[in-house]
Amino acid sequence: MWVVAGIIAALGLAESIAERQSVEDLPQEPKSAIEPLDVRPLMPVESGRNDSNPVWSPSGSLIAFERSRGERKEIVIARPDGTVVQSIYFQLSETSREPKFFFPGVVEDVSYNAGITWSPAGDRLVFMSNGGAGNYDLYLRERDGKTVRLTDHKEKDGHAHWSPVADQLVFVSGRTGKGDIYLLDVATRAVTRLTWGGNPYLYPQWSPDGKKIVMIHGSNENHDIYLIEDVLKTGDALKALTGWTYDDLRPVWSPDGRKVAFYSNYSPTGDPRVWAILVVAADGSDPLQGEGLAAKVVATDVVPDVERGPAWMPDSNRIVYVRNAEQEYNPIYIADLVRKTNLPLKTETKMNHDVACSAHGVIAFRAQVNQWDQLFLARLRD
User: Fold this and answer.
1) In this predicted structure, what is the pLDDT of residue 307?
2) What CATH number does the domain located at 1-11+53-206 have?
3) What is this structure's pTM?
4) CB 28 within 8 A of CB 353
């Protein structure tokens, strides 16, 4: 159930946030905006499809994203110029457990394909799919374009993240009854359990050096951020980065590995529907709660993207996010941690979401055009 719950949260959390009075950022924003070098659709705008959740390859030479047509969801791999490299749609055979590859439009049964993570070289990727059979496992798209199954368990597997330095994945599995973090060797398929606990561990993320893992742990509306300080020492206790009554979600490492950004429903007004982005030291030296942790807020009144988490720029000093401002059609903002500013990025797009930054600082995001979700690219000026 945790995978389905995570998907529902990722797709519906932002839309469920009711209209409310904006919370003033701390410190106060200058009345100015960032002019991008250019903003353009990744592909020609087309009705009848919804594109979402872009994920850049490590080099920024490819971008993978999810495409929905009706109830069907496939994965598209493209170049930044919009050229499609491959579309992935998976369907299990009726006569065997082995998956068969289908090009989009060939079969009618519904298969759900999502949760993309790239290999360090950007020549392979792993995704989560139900294969049209209602259960979620992990699949690997190989260098030659073929797709093979990595896990095959009656319980759900998902939330995979590929190590930036090795052929290893961390992922979440319900095979223990809740949700625990596992380590999977891509070559041997060997699986090692990393967490034990009554409440689920979700959304694991490798550190840039491939030695540590950050995740959330908790239940219902009270998750905290935890850290595995050394993946090789599986018996060591986890280190808490937060420990308060607010809900902390979707931690993401800064590219330099020194900081962790995450969403929290902490707000000065006490409204649990108001979400903020906090940034804490990755070594756990910052306060775990109270005013000390509240002082780590870098942006307020944001639309949380539970599928991908806060989007760091490659300089580790800026975070791109979506402001929850319906009257302004949810504009994109950039929080500068050094200058302590939050400035809008003038994209002229509406109902933005799903922000991702490439290694070169190109921003990919989803926006609505005539009620259909399309992907856009924005480049900043030097």
Assistant:
1) 87
2) 2.120.10.30
3) 0.87
4) no
